[in-house]
Amino acid sequence: MRLRLVKQDTKFDFFSRWKMWLGISLVMMIVGFASFMYQGLNYGIDFKGGTTIRSESTTPIDVGAYRDAISPLELGDITISEVFDPTFAADQHVAMIRIQAQEGQEAVKSDIIAQVQVALQAIAPDIKFVSVESVGPKVSGELIQTAAIAVVLAIAAVLIYIWLRFEWQFALGAVAALVHDIILTIGIFSELQIKFDLAIIAALLTIVGYSLNDTVVVFDRVRENLRKYKKKPLNEVLNISINETLSRTFMTSVTTLLALIALFVLGGDVIRGFVFAMIWGVIVGTYSSVFVASAILLYLGVKRDWTNKPDANAGTQFANIDA
Amino acid sequence: MLQIDLWKRVVIWALCALGLLLAVPNAFYSKVEGHNDAIAEIELSGTSPEREAMAAQWPGFLPSGLVNLGLDLRGGAHLLAEVAVEDVYSARMKAFWPEVRDALRPERSTIGTIRLQPSAGDELKVRISEPDGMTRAMEVVRGLAQQVVSLSGVGASDIEVSADGSALTVRLSEAEKRATDERTMQQSLEIIRRRIDEVGTREPTIQRQGTDRILIQVPGIGSAAELKAIIGTTAQLTFQPVLGRGSDPDANAGIGNEILPSLDEEGAYYTLESAPVVTGEELVDAQPAFDQNGRPAVNFRFNPTGARKFGDYTAENIGNPFAIVLDSEVISAPVIQSHISGGSGIITGNFTVEESTNLAVLLRAGALPAGLDFLEERTIGPELGADSIKAGQVACIVAFTAVLIFMFLSYGTFGLFANIALIINVGLIFGLLSMVGATLTLPGIAGIVLTIGMAVDANVLVFERIREEIKSGKGPARAIDLGYEKALSAIIDANITTFITAVILFVMGSGPVRGFAITLGLGILTSVFTAIFVTRLIIVMWFERKRPKELEV
Fold it and tell me: How does it sit in the membrane (chain A) (predicted)?
């Protein structure tokens, strides 16, 4: 007896309410974007400049006492938060201390770090700084620019590749799904105020890759079925294709999620935000390949005379690269 | 149909075996690391019984390449420094003044008196009292120009001379500035490397980034502050004539002079001539020592030109004080007692033994041609790195096991085949990482975990396709064949698009992000290879043996 996530021969009708789904996606995108505009992201020092100190001590952390100890140093805006993680030992108390970028300095001077350490030793004598990271405002400005360029480049490259391999409608559908995924991811990061740093950009690009992976598999089947069912209306062809690939879609999402959840729970707090972005991306990406990418394809319509060309394989001139 | 040529089978298994063999050293990380270190030490400084024993921990015929652990896993310090390349322009102009003065002096009958004017750091302004002689003056100064030595600026002159009324301005040409920047960067890299090597840590990364930045990563060092103490000091040593001593830092020093504070005496300032007699560049050696009173000091020796300049100057200025200046602070200002001809001397000051040792190291390694601004500093403690590795390992194992069980439950025998391929896949990733000497970072571990999840995708695509073919009534052999054939385009398209994003991440990203891009990219390559070739070969071999009448996928 096999484990089946999806029954054989599903015949779900994904497109009876496709306008509604597109509408919902649009609304969610607007909410995400509005959250980003009004609340803004909780940028890490990679993008904003400043210093983060990760401290470790065997005495329990009192955030207020930490703040009182550091504030006489007049370092401007300071955020202190305690970090909890199942992988920590019982007497391992970890705090993250974030200090804003100091006026007129690139990286924070070592003596300031030393002062902070001395100040904290008054309340937690055995306190250790297990990591200290400091980024000057000059670099952080550049980092955010490079990151934005990377995301735009990735989307552009993908648009061109899918256009070459399929048709422009497919490319637009896929890119719409990508933009949807990215906006929703940024939206949830701004809504939950999770720290947004360089690693999250890597996660965003991975989401781009994953969502695309999913979309392309569906589209590949659509292309095949368009040749097979020449007379069927487009929404039926799309429905058949999605139903046929549904089992695979779920299998892959589940294996990927299994791996990611293991990492989320056991991988430690340092990469938790990164893994969270990816988990979210896998879920959103799976949703968007059906309800955004395919719906857009339905909206735009596709050329139906695939087989008029002498080579049955030639959807476009590049479609038979692997044949 | 379901046939794979023997040579192909051999190649596929050979590639797998090779990849796994390359991955093996990582399973014995500390042993292999000890072995590699011992071999390096033996090569460098001869053999010893302990080193031989260390080297013998790992058989020499096996590969010994390891995956480098990134700073976030091993602990250490990371610095991104910007070199203030403009510093060099003003140093050049400062040093150029005596030359200009000497060249103009014989022309005093036509150009009148010459006086240095205050000016921006990267230019030299000279006023002459007879504006009519300007043409001659410019001619003379232009005569001092030299050709720029660089690939691009062939034939260009290194200085630009312009005149405005009675003022003559000398500036470095653009071509010379670019050539100077290039030299400054090369020198800075070289000197930073030498200083870090003097301290002797393992596998430092010292890389140039962009036009004027240097990335320095030193694993195993306690903190970025320690690293900065080694490389952050410019260690510009100069010997300058002393004009006076006072307590007002803002006093008018006169043009061509400067006022510098004393290192030891609070509130004491020296007025010095800006153009140095000799600089630290002309030192050939520096050693920590003690002066006649038994206090820590630094002995130094000049090269022949430096020794001659120093000798001539001391011969002419007996009885006058001169200052030993380190990074714009006067260490000491002794009075010249006699002509110093040997080219060696001693720097005394209120040093501790440690300070004098450090100063000697810095002087020996050479001065940085320009100051460094630190844009980014990261210190990661070794404990945090060790915790991350441990957590990453546990997560990897759990993720791996979960996926293996899930695949078996879903696809039975075929799931087992996919699992074998998955194990090979992870081995291959490590093999490739060790082969290219890539650096594994924490996001890199995430990349591997993600690959574990996604690697099965290609197999899932094929298996689902085989299921469909069986359902449409195809025989087992035909179903397997068609399954692979039809799934291929989806596999290729899906993986190429993901690969594109991995490449973009690699090109645009830095540090940990790049580490993630590497594992993701390599993971895609190996998972496509294992899905298309390895699983297929396993299935074909199984099919040949069993010849099943019915397929259950």
Answer: Multi-pass membrane protein
